[in-house]
Amino acid sequence: MTEQVQKLSTKHLLGIKDLNRNDIELIFETADNFKNVLNRPIKKVPSLRDITIANIFFENSTRTKLSFELAEKRLSADIINFAASSSSVSKGETLIDTVNNILAMKVDMVVMRHPYAGAGVFLSKHINAQIVNAGDGAHEHPTQALLDAFSIRERFGDVAGKKVVIVGDVLHSRVALSNILCLQKLGAEVMVCGPTTLIPKYIFTLGVKVEHNLIKALNWCDVANMLRIQLERQDIKFFPSLREYSLMYGLNKKILDSLDKEIIIMHPGPINRGVEITSDVADSKQSIILDQVENGVAIRMAVLYLLANQRS
Ligand code: CP
């Protein structure tokens, strides 16, 4: 008898909002297996050897792009990479035309990062390939939230019941929304902390706590996820200066050591050392920032593998 492969409830990964708790747990269990593979001398499996994946990045990326590419290579997929900055997008080509040209080369999956919210949803309605959202504007970054929650599960054994504070530029962050949705689906309590101008007005509809005092927020939580100030998405000033922001919301070792309990520090990267977090915190034993990066490969392998299973 052949073993029944469990399937996700969705054809694409456009956002955490489309996943249910079973989907997330299935991704984690699959990532556990791939993490074991990644710790072997031979880190490669043939699972996606018939699949061609296009990584199309209309916005800069270090971690997500490298992590997807490595995950695809570890799964033996054929891959093509596309960066908008070195493409015919600069000559006026539209998103649909760009992607249709890539698909004409018989691509099965598209991993896309785009500066506009909803770009992945738009694409999924116009092309047959499966879409993985690698970050769409200030909307969602689902694989980041999955690897973040997976890293919390790895550290604590479970996400349920944990208290997680997301600190900083929540307004412009796709990581924040995806994290809130993912952590809540897994039974964690979520708080956001930052200046009023960087907390979106709709936040209360998401059922999270809001705290503007960093010390109170840190004393409440088990995990603090420190966000970067996204100056590239800010067309007006949301606070007087980075120095003032850092004085009010930056996490330094003195603050960390003064807390009632030992908390875990996370950051999605890229870090602006000395702004939202000092080097001695980022590099401390309480920081799991590089564990997050390591787990990103196993999580992305799991997502690609499970989406590919939808095809059979
Ligand atoms: N965390 C994250 O998305 O980093 P990159 O922008 O470098 O991909």
Protein architecture, described:
There is one protein chain. This protein is of the alpha/beta class and 312 residues long. The chain has two domains: 16-141 and 293-309, Aspartate/ornithine carbamoyltransferase (Rossmann fold, 3-Layer(aba) Sandwich); 142-292, Rossmann fold, CATH 3.40.50.1370. The protein is built from eleven helices and nine strands. The chain has helices at residues 21-38, 63-74, 95-103, 119-126, 142-156, 174-185, 214-220, 242-249, 253-258, 279-282, 289-309, and strands at 52-57, 78-83, 109-114, 130-136, 163-167, 189-193, 209-211, 223-226, 264-266. The strands form two sheets. The chain has a five-stranded parallel beta sheet. It has a four-stranded parallel beta sheet with strand order 2-1-3-4, with helices on both faces. α5 packs across α6. The radius of gyration is 19 Å and the shape is globular. The mean pLDDT is 94. Phosphoric acid mono(formamide)ester binds next to α2. Residues 61-65, 135, 141, 144, 268-270 line the site of phosphoric acid mono(formamide)ester.
